[in-house]
Design brief:
alpha/beta; Phosphorylase Kinase, domain 1; Dimethylsulfoxide Reductase, domain 2; Barwin-like endoglucanases; 7-stranded mixed sheet; 6-stranded mixed β-barrel; 32% helix; globular; binds ligand MGD; binds iron/sulfur cluster; binds molybdenum atom
Length: 754
């Protein structure tokens, strides 16, 4: 029996997705993981786990996972010592900087970094050490529209409301399939269970999606929408709220909302009748949903990938929260509320209730002149920045936990561009589709060998909690931690010297952080002595991210303030509570949370309103005969990088093109035969899966596949390679306000290859 050899049990938060489930990890006498289960005592996940969580064992043990640095020699990757790798990094950058200057350096930050304490603390060291503005990330194929909308409405890009899942009476879920994904920018372990609880307590769940997903099947109602038209549907809902006298933001925030009349005027033309042929949703249904939202005791609208990675991503994100506000549900129990994260954040610091607000376009990309958003350029512009000659052309490139060759639009073009670079470094655990282009690959330890705290996603949690996980398994010999790799990479970039010690960079960083916070009059350590605090922090023997986290917890909204607040939070308190610390239900935060210059919720900001003209014009552009491609996710897959884990990929290949039976009939397609699918930028052949669960005129393909490339080292994934859907997505198609790529609603032609 597996349990018999267990000598110790560790508790740890799963870092694989936003749910952050608590895991119970049994180890034997040789420090092998025997079994991973959901931690029943976790204060947030209560024992829930999905199949990916227990696969942390298999990821750790995967023979293909990199344990030593690789250098490309004569076109082949070979293992080298860390010293040799760092020398190659220094030499590579030195040469490019000497020839082309620092403006030729660029970085891409991938998704796993958002769930990684070391990366959250030290990615910025790399970014700031480049000396160029060429920063790209997975955000512009993901949630950037939410940051833009939140920034203009509430004053900071992370002031994003989440549906109060556990107390709401009515949930309208748009473009999200939590039964597969567990939701997103809405941290809620066991999201499906929380949806079922809404229905069990007499509430209603409505899903808007072109696919009848598992989430739609389990809901009270599925509304099938034409891809890309959610903005019109939302505009029509708002139109009804005004026309039928249903607008009431509620007494709780009435004096803090501006732009109510302006928004009504802007959307006066978007009647349900006008948009119904475009959205495919009858005017009656739109009216009914508007009335249901306004009439429910509490209600919340939530929108994710299917309404963010589309042509009106930012408008959609804005209108979702406009509906929440107009129906009286913003910042209300059971409505759309804001978390109060234990580590604090941009909306807990500074003066409560007012701030500098948000802006974009502090610079533009070199080639296409795309405006900067949150210090980044759209990843859809990356390939052209590498291939277009001229001053500032990207010649050296770093990826930090990213696989843009499979994750970003027009992948073939990016793949080719990466092969033309002078120098590339990847900090990654695999030699994969992207990192095979790297001259040097620096592998961090496995997830189980690192400590963890979800610094980012707990800002969007449906309940306030804090949980810290210690490293479960020891490092392999000579293995630096991920934060040490990042700090050193930053140091080498700055000094072009390999002798730089990460701990020196760490000391400088914590010193700067402490100096800053003791000067803030609203902080709980205002005016304290920096040396005294630094001594307290260092007395624990902790360094790196753990030490910084301790400082952030102690000076956060629940913090102990280094003795200033009795029973307050500190890292020690989290260590004493391995199942997490529950900080309670979400509480109203308006007006304190606002950081707009006016101190108001801006319901109709000029920067977002400007895109309504394009939204209106889109009605006339809808073409019923045009096939549209959308994406999807599978429970046992995680973006592009977990397909090397046999326990997850065994069984049927999930990389199929879903087609409605009527379309299949018309196009001569049937189950298992190959279809050829062509977009403006690419063509791929993929097996067909005929299913009633997809809307007519729409086809669906998951992303993150296409592992049959030369030079990668993912032996399991290569056997079930699938195809890369992003060969079809178009780098010219973007949400203009956020620079987010259009990954859903791609015009395609589908042909039978039978
Ligand atoms: N068509 C289409 N494209 C999409 C999407 C879609 O819905 N449709 N979704 C988009 C979304 S939401 C996202 S977030 C992006 C993801 O885009 P990316 O972040 O670029 O891609 P991932 O597949 O997450 O790849 C993560 C990389 O990090 C490595 N890695 C894993 N764990 C670690 C770690 O702990 N440390 C380090 N250093 N490396 C690690 C993996 O080996 C892999 O190379 O894809 C986007 N692309
Ligand atoms: N198992 C698993 N879990 C994951 C991931 C994973 O790859 N696998 N990735 C993680 C990441 S990085 C993220 S960002 C989250 C994403 O989490 P979700 O946002 O829930 O992502 P999806 O499951 O892709 O659901 C998107 C839904 O949008 C629908 N859709 C497509 N186009 C449109 C449209 O125009 N309008 C509407 N209304 N719907 C549309 C699709 O049919 C799909 O059902 O998941 C995270 N969790
Ligand atoms: S849902 Fe699965 S992958 Fe996500 S945190 Fe929980 S166990 Fe990990
Ligand atoms: Mo994502």
């Amino acid at each position: 029996m597996a349990g018999s050899s267990v000598v110790r049990t560790a508790f740890r938060t799963c870092p694989l997705c936003e749910a952050g489930c608590g895991l119970e990890i049994d180890l034997d006498a040789t420090e092998q993981v025997v079994r991973i289960r959901g931690d029943k005592d976790d204060v947030f996940s209560h024992g829930y786990i999905c199949p990916k969580g227990s696969a942390l064992k298999q990821i750790h043990e995967d023979p293909d996972r990199l344990r030593r640095p690789l250098i490309k020699k004569n076109g082949k990757h070979v293992e080298v010592s860390w010293d040799e790798a760092w020398e190659a990094v220094r030499d590579g950058f030195a040469k490019v900087i000497e020839t082309h200057g620092r403006s030729s350096l660029a970085v891409y930050l991938g998704n796993p970094g958002a769930h990684n304490l070391g990366a959250m603390m030290f990615n910025k060291t790399v970014v700031q050490s480049l000396g160029s503005f060429n920063r790209f990330s997975a955000s512009t194929v993901d949630q950037m529209p939410k940051h833009v909308a939140a920034g203009f409405m509430f004053g900071t890009p992370v002031t994003i409301p989440v549906p109060d899942l556990d107390r709401t009476d009515y949930l309208l879920l748009m473009g999200s399939n939590p039964y597969a994904s567990n939701g997103s920018v809405c941290t809620a372990p066991d999201f499906p269970g929380r949806l079922e609880a809404i229905r069990a307590r007499g509430g209603k769940v409505v899903v808007v999606d072109p696919r009848r997903t598992r989430t739609a099947q389990e809901a009270d109602e599925w509304i099938s929408i034409r891809p890309g038209t959610d903005g019109l549907f939302l505009a029509a809902i708002i139109n009804v709220l005004y026309a039928d006298g249903l607008v009431d933001v509620g007494d709780h925030i009435r004096s803090y909302v501006s732009g109510i009349d302006e928004l009504g005027a802007e959307l006066g033309a978007f009647t349900p009748e006008l948009v119904e042929s475009a959205t495919g949703i009858s005017a009656d249904v739109t009216r009914r949903i508007a009335h249901e939202l306004a009439g429910a005791p509490t209600a919340a609208v939530n929108g994710r990938i299917g309404v963010n990675a589309v042509q009106f991503g930012s408008v959609n994100a804005w209108l979702v929260d406009a509906v929440n506000t107009l129906t009286g549900n913003l910042d209300k129990r059971g409505g759309a509320m804001f978390a109060l994260p234990a580590t604090g954040g941009p909306n807990t610091r500074g003066t409560a209730g007012v701030g500098n607000g948000f802006r974009t376009g502090k610079g533009t990309s070199r080639v296409r002149k795309y405006p900067e958003v949150l210090g980044e350029f759209p990843v859809a512009t990356l390939a052209e920045e590498i291939t277009t000659p001229g001053a500032g052309q990207i010649r050296a490139f770093i990826t930090l936990a990213g696989n843009p060759v499979l994750s970003t639009p027009d992948s073939d073009a990016l793949d080719t561009a990466l092969s033309e670079l002078d120098f590339m470094v990847s900090v990654d655990i695999y030699l994969n589709e992207t990192s095979r282009h790297a001259d040097v690959i620096l592998p961090p330890p496995s997830q189980l060998q690192r400590d963890h705290y979800d610094l980012l996603l707990l800002q969007f949690a449906v309940r306030n909690v804090a949980n810290y996980s210690e490293q479960v398994l020891a490092f392999d010999e000579a293995q630096p931690d991920e934060w040490e790799i990042l700090a050193k990479l930053g140091g080498v970039l700055q000094t072009l010297d390999t002798k730089i010690d990460p701990s020196v960079i760490d000391d400088i960083a914590i010193d700067a952080l402490v100096q800053n916070v003791i000067k803030a009059s609203t902080s709980n350590v205002y005016g304290r002595n920096a040396d005294e605090i630094l001594e307290c922090l260092s007395a624990t023997g902790r360094r790196g991210p753990a030490r910084m986290l301790d400082f952030m917890l102690q000076t956060g909204p629940y913090g102990a303030g280094f003795g200033a607040v009795e029973d307050g939070l500190s890292l020690q308190k989290l260590l004493d509570n391995p199942h997490g610390v529950d900080l309670g239900e979400l509480e109203p935060r308006i007006p304190e949370i606002l950081r707009t210059p006016t101190g108001m919720v801006e319901l109709c900001p000029a920067e977002l309103r400007i895109d309504l003209v394009r939204l209106f014009d889109s009605i006339a552009q809808v073409d019923d005969a045009q096939m549209l491609l959308i994406g999807r996710r599978h429970l046992k897959s995680n973006n592009s990088w977990m397909h090397n884990i046999n326990v997850l990929t065994k069984g049927n290949l999930s990389c199929t093109l879903q087609v409605h039976p009527d379309d299949a009939m018309r196009l001569g397609l049937s189950d298992g035969i190959n279809a050829r699918i062509t977009s403006r930028v690419g063509t791929i052949d993929v097996p067909v899966e005929v299913t009633e669960s997809i809307r007519r005129g729409v086809v669906s393909l998951p992303h993150g596949w296409g592992h049959n490339v030369q030079g990668a080292r993912m032996s399991v994934a290569a056997k079930k390679a699938g195809v890369n859907s992003n060969v079809l997505t178009d780098s010219q198609a973007m949400d203009p306000l956020s620079g987010t790529s259009v990954l859903n609603g791609i015009p395609v032609v589908v042909q039978s290859l039978a």
